Amino acid sequence: MGSLYADIYRPQGVDSRLLTILIRIPYSKAPYQDRRKSAARSGVAYMLPGQGFAVVVQDVRDQYSSEGPYHILLGDVDDGWITSQHWPNGKVGGFGCSALGIAQIMMSQRGPPALAAIVPQGASGSMRNMPYDFQPDNLPRFSRWFRYLRDNATWGSQPPNTQIPAFVRTLPIADMTERSGGYRNDCRDWTTHAAGDPW
Known about the structure:
Blueprint: E1 5-9, E2 18-25, H1 39-50, E3 54-59, E4 88-97, H2 99-109, E5 115-121, H3 130-133, H4 139-151, H5 164-168, H6 176-179, H7 186-192
Parallel strand pairs: 2-3, 2-4, 4-5
Antiparallel strand pairs: 1-3
């Protein structure tokens, strides 16, 4: 499976076991490291240890420093290694917004014994319907999200080779990322497997 890489933030001078907050991120853990460049993210990593928590910020599989394989939002839930370390107290909580929140919801569905609480924000537990819940003018954004996670493209950039009116009126949805210049990826799997299919 390869190695997972995470940054661990703990209170200074505290030797006791701590409740641990897990943040699993597909967008790089680096912004959490520097308070000056990303106060919104690094604030979590530095503030919570000040409240007596340990914080683990982990690159999910095959993203940035961690090794693969990676499938969007699927592999994140099974990488439960924290409680084998010497510093947790046996209870783990989740924190984060959007994809980080979705990872928490999916992790909670597995019922890991150490999971005591989650704080998902701006996240949905019904990922199967996600491609169809988007309004037509948001479909290009949905496609960009898949391409960003798999291709490391620039999130704010327009998909290449795409005329938006034609793009959103053309079926099937499963081919969106390929029509926008990307290669076949998890978007096709999400949109071509029935709910409950353990592909």
